Amino acid sequence: MDRETERKGDDSHEASCSDCGQLNCYRQESRFPDYCPGESVGKQTLEGITGRYCTEDEDARAARAAAEVEGLYYGKLTRVEEVLAFARRIGARKIGLATCVGLVEETRLFSKMLRQNGFEPFAVLCKIGSTDKTEIGIEEELKLRPESFEALCNPLLQAKMLNDWKSGLNVVIGLCVGHDALFCRHSEALVTTLIVKDRVLAHNPAAALYTSRSYYRRVMDTGRNL
User: Fold this and answer.
1) Which residues of 28-152 form beta strands (DSSP E)?
2) Separation in Å, CA 44 to CA 10, 40, 145, 152
3) For 151, phi and psi rounded to 5 degrees?
4) Cβ-based neighbours of 126, under 8 Å, separated by 6 or more
5) Domains of the chain (ranges, CATH numbers)
6) HSE of 31 in the Cβ direction (CA atoms, 13 Å)?
7) Integer distance in angstroms from the first to the last C-alpha of the chain?
8) Which of 110, 53, 44 is nearest to 82 (CA)?
9) 8 A C-beta contact, residue 121 and residue 102
10) What Cα–Cα distance (Å) separates residue 199 from each residue in 16, 17, 38, 176, 212?
11) Per-residue model confidence as pLDDT tens digits over 115-139
12) Which is nearest to 23 in space by CA: 14, 36, 41, 6?
């Protein structure tokens, strides 16, 4: 039994790209598995979406800019440099920074780098509006420091502020899980991420995946409810 048939035989979940051992979509040097999601897309749908990349609208320009940055600099530039290269190619001079208050020093450094490279940064902290968490129904015991003022994270206001400022590109710097999702949903400008916050793993969440069979075996516990 080949790897694809074996994996598809697992009825515990609907097979998707994470089950594929061929990755034929990348180089077309093998074959597509029977359950390939991409192969199930109709020709008309695929051609319609591909055609959107051939226009001159914002999505098409961003897609081509991203491909150009990848092709020229893959494995050569840091993430910081890639953000600058991408922003320049889409013509985004005003760069909005949606940042966690805990990473304000990193945001200051990145702002300086942006200015040095001809961009205009504008940062909005997650605690903007300074509204206590209890005002939206969060119980005191769920605060980091109960019985004290503790501002809620406000991704909707962050998005509004940067929308009003007319940023050309927004960069997430360490927003909490969920708050980052809300910010991306409501941002009018394209959003990319510079730092993903993970206090336990020094902002390297992939480490939990790499060590899931050793130090972080707990992430594989089936009966663990978070």
Assistant:
1) 94-99, 120-125
2) 31, 12, 55, 46
3) -70, 140
4) 98, 99, 100, 101, 153, 154, 155, 158, 175, 176, 179
5) 1-40 (no CATH), 77-195 (3.40.50.1860)
6) 7
7) 37
8) 110
9) no
10) 31, 30, 36, 11, 17
11) 999 999 999 999 999 999 999 999 9
12) 36
Q: Which residue has the higher pLDDT, 181 or 210?
A: 181
Helix (H) or strand (E) holding 195: strand 190-195
What is the distance between the alpha carbons of residues 155 and 177, in angstroms, rounded to a whole number? 11
- The Cα 80–Cα 174 span in angstroms is 14
Q: What is the pLDDT of residues 79-126, one digit of tens each?
A: 999 999 999 999 999 999 999 999 999 999 999 999 999 999 999 999
Q: What is the pLDDT of residue 220?
A: 77
Encoded tokens for 140:
């005191």
User: What is the distance of C-alpha 191 from the center of its chain?
Assistant: 8
Q: What is the pTM of this model?
A: 0.89
